Amino acid sequence: MANKNTEAFKQPLWINNPVLVQILGICSALAVTAQLKPAIVMGLSVTIIVAMSNVIISLLRNTIPNRIRIIIQLVVVAALVTVVSEILKAFAYDVSVQLSVYIGLIITNCILMGRLEAFAMQNGPWASFLDGIGNGLGYAAILVVVAFVRELFGSGTLFGFQVIPQACYEAGYLNNGLMIMPPMALILAGCIIWYHRAKNKDLQEN
Amino acid sequence: MEHFFSLFVRSIFVDNMIFAFFLGMCSFLAVSKNVKTSLGLGVAVIFVELITLPVNYLLQTKVLEPMGLEFLSFILFIAVIAGIVQLVEMVVEKFSPSLYNSLGIFLPLIAVNCAIMGASLFMQQRIGMDPDNTQAITSFGDSIAYALGSGIGWALAIVCLAAIREKMEYCDVPKPLKGVGITFITVGLMAMAFMCFSGLAI
């Protein structure tokens, strides 16, 4: 049993990553990655919400009528997202302004619904909690990688601090403006998927 | 009236749900394998947006704002969307079984489509904007224009991608890139093309 729990936690981190393999939660993964700070906040918020909603649904799983389960799941998730959004507004206002509607959109993030349907409805609370944390962190990892590349090459900064020295700019180096535009996020994600599938050959499609 | 049209055109091309905000990406990538089904999903999205957005607009301006309950908007909006999707599904099933068979499987999916929820949340942000701004949604009519525009923009994007993917079947794509990888890069290039519209104004 312990083995199964660690698997539930470890699988989604790389082998069965929710973003790269299951192609879930792409919307917010790409939209908030122009800078590192909002990407990390977003990743952590999603991790907390997935873990908590997994636990709640897993506790309720035997009492939820099958026909209306989607609405119940949505309400549980929406309540948690509201709490997180109010906390962010209170303690990290500038980040919550940057994330704008994407915090609210965690509700419709497919990772949540996917994990609730596929895992929490069949498994106990502790396993569901680990599965939620694993999936959340797997999601956050992709966000951080994409945001790192985009912020470094797009604005020459990391966490808002200047990383590329002024001397480079004087020598004619320019920030790549395309990096902070939406299309580049898609292309970077495509490249990460390319690398991931080159390493894991059994995932390749014919 | 002029504002109505500029908001409509702007939400199709400039503020395109897929290319500018990445909303509704999950079903966008999963269902865009052939043109016919993606057209079906596109029509379903337009339909659901047209109903939910005006309803949420009225809820936001007539119920939540006067009572100071804006923090409840997430729960209320998603409940409205899920409820209306269920209702639409039942009505379509009763009155037009042929349409139900072609849309059937997509309708429940739409409840968790970020494009629908996203449109409602953007609408919430834009209510307070300056009326001269082409993005502002200041009346019930504007909310209909926005619903129609963003829905059509989403449908346009998914049909275009499906058409490209149908052609791509015959291309020699590197093996690890096949499937999702090349689709991402294609969408990225399409988004770049759509950026040309960014100066568009009526």
Describe what this molecule looks like in 3D.
The complex is a heterodimer of chains A (206) and B (202). Chain A is mostly helical and 206 residues long. Chain A has one domain (27-200). Chain A is 67% helix and 2% strand. Chain A contains 10 helices and 2 strands. Chain A has helices at residues 2-10, 26-31, 36-60, 69-91, 93-99, 101-104, 110-120, 125-155, 166-170, 182-199, and strands at 157-158, 161-162. Chain A has a two-stranded antiparallel sheet. In chain A, α3 (36-60) runs antiparallel to α4 (69-91), α3 packs across α5 and α7 runs antiparallel to α8. Chain A starts with a helix and ends in a 7-residue tail after the last helix. Chain B has 202 residues and is mostly helical. In chain B, 74% of the residues lie in helices and 0% in strands. In chain B, α5 (73-95) crosses α8 (114-126). In chain B, 45% of the residues are buried. The model of chain B has no long low-confidence stretch (mean pLDDT 84). Classes of the chains: A mainly alpha (206), B mainly alpha (202). Chains A and B meet through α2, α4 and α10 of A and α2, α3, α5, α8 and α10 of B.
Distance between the termini of chain A: 35 Å
Query: What is the β-strand count of chain B?
Result: 0
Number of domains of chain A: 1
Residue share in helices of chain B? over 70%
Low-confidence stretches of chain B: none
Quick one: overall form of chain B? globular
Order of helices and strands of chain B: HHHHHHHHHH
Radius of gyration of chain B: 18 Å
Sheet having the most strands of chain B = none
Strand content of chain A: under 5%
- Low-pLDDT stretches of chain A are none
Mean pLDDT of chain B: 84
Task: Work out the oligomeric state of the chains in this entry.
Answer: heterodimer
Annotation field: number of helices of chain A: 10
Order of helices and strands of chain A: HHHHHHHHEEHH
Structural class of chain A: mainly alpha
**Would you tell me the overall average pLDDT of chain A?**
84
Category by helix and strand content of chain B: mainly alpha
Radius of gyration of chain A: 19 Å
* Relative strand content of chain B: under 5%
Query: What's the β-strand tally of chain A?
Result: 2
